[in-house]
Specification:
Keywords: Plasmid. This protein is 67% helix and 0% strand. The protein has 63 residues and is mostly helical.
Amino acid sequence: MQITQNRAELAHEQAFAFALAQGAERERAEEFAGEYVNVLEDRAGEIPYPDAPAPTPEEVWIS
């Protein structure tokens, strides 16, 4: 199962903005945003326990 294009674009924008706010250069922020969308796509096929929400950009940034 893949996340929809609109959700992916929104997630990318949020992660990009978050990375910039953390002081990342634009290139690194773009890379992080792509990684974040990949994490969401990977998790879309998993069954969360117990109905855990998708990770936030902050949670992925830290890990």
